[in-house]
Please model this.
Amino acid sequence: MKIPYLNFAAAHKEIEAEIFEAFKTTYQSNWFIMGNQLKTFEEAYAAFSKVPFCAGVANGLDALILSLITLEIGEGDEVIVPSNTYIATWLAVSYVGAKPIPVEPSIDTYNICAEQIKSHISARTKAIIPVHLYGQSCEMDDIMQLAKEHNLFVIEDNAQAQGAQYNNKTCGSFGDINATSFYPGKNLGALGDAGAVTTANQELFQKVQILRNYGSQEKYYNQVKGINSRLDEVQAAFLSVKLNYLNKWTGQRKSLAKVYLELLSPIADIILPKTADKADHVYHIFLVRTHKRNELQAYLSSAGIGTLIHYPVPPHLQEAYKELNYKKGDFPIAEEIANTALSLPLYPGMSIEEISYICGEIKSFFERKF
Model:
């Protein structure tokens, strides 16, 4: 049996007619930037996120950068980030001239929480970026309370957890301003790069709208130095179609994850995902850990099963951040995750038979004598 790590075929087949119609409508409108398709999607995604405002932008990294610029965070400021995250979280902080301050995550949930963050707050700290990693919401009530006590901004990085909740409140609605990505592999993915900023603050929303459009509210009149980061009409139209299916697809992810958890739980040599109290998990990634990770990945590959490693090198050990002078051992939890994590296939359209085959092969691997 051949099972790729990710396969769009089933989900895209389900919506193919609607996607083609969305393209046709946009094509025939002859309006491709900042039009009705964008407005329609922004309103729909804001409602989905339980906030009044959403601004579509070019990608998730821009969403983070624009959020930081909107909050006037820059040179001399510090922003708390997870030590275990995709590097985009750190890059956004660097691009505005601020310094990323890494905080170790919980080894159980892989997310940062208030207890770890507290000791890293300094006089220079201006914001916290909690990342809802792999699809699980951070424990946001405590993070928001800590931010309030220290007069800090919160920017949620919600690229991997669209639709997830904490304590019955939707991710992307907690922070002062929040960023998400619609990269094709996300739970809500465009057919190219795309992203968005969500907020309940009208003033911040209006600033983002201006900044993403060359610093202009009215064409050829520029109030500030902005950038070109606009979610185009075609991608907005595609996302509007996909958004209507997101809850259904999330339900499929959760059902498949439940099968994984049931079938893999008897295997003592593998560490399964854990979900915090009051937290929700939408399983953007189904990540397991084992000290035999590389051997297991090779074994599964030989059985026709695709896997990925999220992420093989933590940000503090990337060459891009060599000027921070971090070394191996500085963030042992992030390094432990990087050395042991393996992401298994999980996507809408997978069958229980496929999950069973994968789990059977994993069981066979650990039954071998090493």
Remarks:
- The chain has a mean pLDDT of 97.
- The radius of gyration is 21 Å.
- The longest strand covers residues 53-57.
